[in-house]
Each structure stands twice: as C-alpha cells, then as structure tokens.
Design brief:
Blueprint: H1 3-9, H2 32-40, E1 48-54, E2 56-57, E3 69-70, H3 75-95, E4 100-108, H4 116-129, E5 131-142, H5 149-157, E6 160-168, H6 172-177, H7 184-196, E7 201-206
Parallel strand pairs: 1-4, 2-3, 4-5, 5-6, 6-7
Helix pairs in contact: 3-4, 4-5
C-alpha cells in the first residue's frame, strides 16, 4: 500500500467495505414495495449473485465488527437456517425460480459453524428455488479452527469451489491481542483438506494494523 493512500485514508472515518451499498447509504426510501418490485425484475437483468449471512460464531474475535452472535449450542443455528429457507422461498416466489444464479457466497459470522447435513440441505433449497448456471461458483467463509473433515466433504459435494479462510495474523502475540489463537498447523490442515477434496481456490483473510 502506498504512503499516499495511508496518508489519505489511515485516520479517515469511512463506511465499512464489507457490504454494498454501505450502511451509510441505507434509508427509508427503499421499503417492501420497492424491494418486491426489484425482485420481480431480476430475471430480465441476467445472472445474479446470492449472499447468505450466517451470524454465528463459537467465540468472539476482538477485532470483529461483523453482525454475529456467540453460541456454544447448535439449536440457534438450526432455527436460523429454518427461517433462512423460508426467506429463500419468499424471494424465489417474488422473483420467479427461473432467476439465473452465477455466484453464491456464504458469509458471517462463521458459515462453517453449520453441520454438514445443514449445509447440504441449504444448498438443496437454493438449487430448487433458483436456476443455477452450469459453472456457478460457490464460496464459503471458514474458520480453520473448527473445520472438520465431514464439513470439508459436504462443501466439495455441494459445489463449493472457493474457500475464504480467516487467518488475520500468524504472529501468536498478535493473536493473543485479538483473542484469536490459531496455530499455523490448524490453517495448514484446513488448506490440505480442502485441496484434497477438490476445493482448489483458497484465499486467506489477513489484517494489517492489529494490536502489537
């Protein structure tokens, strides 16, 4: 990153980049009628991307500003996914299930907190509600600390072709400062397992400017 960009934006109060439009652009001008009208015209606009937010984590990372909830129990996640399936049906009905889907992205929170069978069921619901393109891309954000082999298999079986692994920093002192202890070996095992299953496109989330 150039010195000019750091000087320009380093101390600036800018909207978070993780959503579009950003929260600063939200207003009451777009209500349920406008939303329904926009959905009804989606199919004519060509391929779309679908984002699904899974707002649950097993522990909190102190740098995080995402909308998430900490739970050690599986029931809240299952209840949320049931409602998400209902939402998929409502959107599909309003837009028409012939909407062509080119990309799917699961964000959070920690989407990999889902059980393998829950993820498979959610993908089945999506594929029944919309028309997936032959080479539709599916990406999932993953916490390597909790990723298990059955979930890796479920990701691969359901067409996931990109995994976004939360790493943030490999420095154990920095990890302690942000309350996210994650060994190099945990990340290495996750990458090896995903690649072995055929998920070859893998990226790491890294953060600069963390404490320590």
């Amino acid at each position: 990153m150039s010195d000019d960009l750091i000087a320009k934006y380093g101390d600036a109060r800018v909207p978070r980049y993780t959503s579009y439009p950003t929260a600063a652009a939200f207003s009451a001008a777009v209500g349920p009628d406008e939303y329904a009208g926009n959905l009804a015209h989606i199919a004519a606009a060509g391929p779309v991307s679908v984002y699904l937010h899974v707002p649950f984590c097993r522990s909190i990372c102190w740098y995080c500003g995402c909308h998430t909830t900490i739970t050690r129990q599986d029931a809240p996640v299952a209840d949320y996914l049931d409602v998400m399936k209902e939402e998929i049906e409502l959107v599909s009905f309003a837009a028409g299930n012939d909407v062509p889907v080119k990309y799917v992205h699961f964000g959070g929170g920690t989407p990999s907190v889902m059980k393998p069978q829950e993820f498979s069921a959610l993908m089945a619901k999506l594929r029944s509600a919309f028309t997936f393109e032959a080479k539709a891309g599916v990406a999932v954000e993953i916490d390597p600390r909790t990723l298990v082999a059955p979930m890796i298999d479920a990701l691969a079986e359901n067409g996931v072709d990109r995994a976004s692994l939360g790493v943030q920093s490999y420095d154990p002192i920095v990890q302690a400062g942000i309350k996210r202890l994650q060994s190099f070996e945990q990340t290495e095992r996750a990458v090896a397992g995903l690649r072995s299953a055929g998920v070859s496109s893998i990226n790491f989330d890294l953060i600069y400017g963390l404490p320590k």
